[in-house]
Design goal:
alpha+beta, Beta-Lactamase, five-stranded antiparallel sheet
Length: 509
Amino acid sequence: MATPGELARLHAVLNPDEHAHLQRLLGSWSLLSDLSFSDLVLVVPASGLEDEGDSELVVLGQIRPSNRPTRLNQDLVGQSPSRQAWSIAADAMEKGEIVRGEVEGISASGPIASEAIPVRFADRVIAVVVRIGLEQLGPSGPSYERIYFDAFDRLAAMVAESAFPFPDNDVGSEESPRVGDGVVVVDEEGRVQFASPNAMNAFHRMGVYSVPEGRRLVDLGVEESAVEWALTTKRPVVEEVERRPDVIVLVHCIPLVIHGSVTGAVILVRDVTDVRRLDRLLLSKDAAIREVHHRVKNNLQTISSLLRLQARRVTERAGREALHEAERRVRSIAIVHEILSRDPGDQVAFGEIVRALVQMAEDSVVGPPGVTIEVEGDLGDLPADVATPLAVTLAELLQNAVEHAFGVDRRALRSGRSPKRKANGSGGVSGRVRVLLDHDDQGLGVEVRDDGVGLPKGFDIERTTSLGLSIVRDLVVAQLGGSIEMARVPRPEGGGTVVRISVPVAPRH
């Protein structure tokens, strides 16, 4: 099913401003439907349909009232009714006036009394709103229906004059009040002429029990800046009114403007107290989650500092190096919680983690040769339970590359001893480490490649005695359910080592 915008582009001749005007109408015409208790259908003159008999109209939109049963069980959007069957629409389009009559072909019971309202933009009629079914209000009918019909008639006149929808009118959201939530009608001076029962319920929750008719909202103790602004500027206003700390009412004030003069306003009110309370609970929950991650990060940084201090007191090289490695692993986990403490939810932007890990690896380089770390690609947003082990894995691989790949014993440099060069004599040449990140529907891919001395002959990660690589293997295979491969890069391809990791988890965006 094509959207109204697509149908307009396919079948109507409209410029961008006219198209935008119809989109605003479709976003706000629920007010017209509810006030008239009627189904509304938007039709435009069709282009390119001359070969299909007299089908010269196309239906762009349809809306049903929320306060009455629908008269249209079928969906007419996209259909091309004939001018003969919908003659009132054709007459309204040609005359530029509101026309009443009958519409044929939409009900098995026969023609339906209807009303066609021309939709004018600037000086041109670009569409017609057809109101299906004219409610007959008897002498004993409810008084509120007369007021609703009167408000609809004034809004319909505004549609025919190009005064509604308003140029700066935003498309309503799910929270936008509708007629069923509560209606207040005021005159041009802001005095209340009518308040629906649901509107009175909202007033009661705000602590207002006085009869509102004939009085301004400010006289009732209700903030009326939205009404004043709408009547003064002739533009709609949406505002939240907080009467008490625990009562919040959403107010949508629509001025009624006829021939350029304000004749009053329709005010839709909705009690959103419970909605805002839930919003605040969610914000409190998000704040609590961020605080937890912040405290975890602080605790991990404290542990990292303690390990670093302890390492300085250990005289044995092996013990000192073990503490340094433990401190670095704790720090890589802390990076994940630091990012989670800034962004609510369980998703973390892995790109930020990668940048922090690269900085940490570069800061650990002591003495020559220099090492350049390059990153290509991105993994998007990952769940925290994936990002944490993957961050530790990447930190371990980067540290392993800068410490062992380029012919210098950097552990010896950190401990103050003279470094031993690797057998290939490449110790004086700057090294390069590339991190390639990729994702698709199958999962995540991480590749760490260096141009260093390469792996020793016969190396097998499944039988490695290196604690760091053992941790990497267990994290990838056991925790992430992925696979890892380490291989020596042939000299014709640049030499060095390549590590490829595949994790069957797709990122979320």
